[in-house]
Amino acid sequence: MLFSSHFIWGFVGTPGVGKTTLGKELASRTEMTYINVGDMAKEGELYEGFDEEYDCPILDEDRVIDELEDKMSEGGVIVDYHGCDFFPERWFHIVFVLRTENSFLYDRLESRGYRGKKLQDNIQCEIFQTLYEEAMLSYREEIVHQLPSNTPEDLERNLDQIMQWIEQWMKDHN
C-alpha cells in the first residue's frame, strides 16, 4: 500500500524502545523512505564533538537539518531519532513517541552495552516521560501520540493502529 508522497512521520523515544523495528516495518508496508538519523549522522559524520561522559558523539543538529531538508520537502518519509525538539514543526504530520516499561528497557539497554550513568539516565528519561514532554512542547498536541512498545504483540498492534490512522488521514486529506 503506497501512501501519499507528502506524508511524513516521526518516531521518537528513548534508545531501545523499538523505533527502528517499527519504522523499518512501516516503511516496507507503505513504500515510504525510512531514515534513521543516528545512522545518517554516522555516515555523514554530522557531529560537533564527543561526549566523554556518555561515550558518544554529539550531533550537529544544524547539519542534520541541512542534510534532511530536501528529503523532507519531498515527503514520503519516516524519521527515527530519540529526540525531536530540533526538527522544524512543519516537517511532521504525525509524531509517535514509543514508550517501554523500565524492566524491559533496562534489559534492552544493558544488552546494548549501556552501563552506569548512560544506562541510568536513559531509564530516568523514560520514567519521567522526557521525550514525550519534549514532543508535546515541540509539536501540536493533536499530532503527538504515545504507543506502548514492550512485546511483539505491542509491535503488531502499533503497526495495525498506525496503518488505520494513516488510512484515515489519507481519506481526510485527499
From TrEMBL:
MF (Gene Ontology): AMP kinase activity; ATP binding; ATP hydrolysis activity
Record region (NMPbind): 36-59
This enzyme's EC code(s): 2.7.4.3
Region (LID): 111-121
Cellular component aspect of the GO annotation: Cajal body; cytoplasm
InterPro entries for the chain: Adenyl_kinase_AK6, P-loop_NTPase
Catalytic activity, as annotated: ATP + H2O = ADP + phosphate + H(+); AMP + ATP = 2 ADP
Compartment(s) of residence: Cytoplasm; Nucleus, Nucleoplasm; Nucleus, Cajal body
GO BP, sorted A to Z: ribosomal small subunit biogenesis; rRNA processing
Family note: Belongs to the adenylate kinase family. AK6 subfamily.
Its job: Broad-specificity nucleoside monophosphate (NMP) kinase that catalyzes the reversible transfer of the terminal phosphate group between nucleoside triphosphates and monophosphates. Has also ATPase activity. Involved in the late cytoplasmic maturation steps of the 40S ribosomal particles, specifically 18S rRNA maturation. While NMP activity is not required for ribosome maturation, ATPase activity is. Associates transiently with small ribosomal subunit protein uS11. ATP hydrolysis breaks the interaction with uS11.
The protein's name in its UniProt record: Adenylate kinase isoenzyme 6
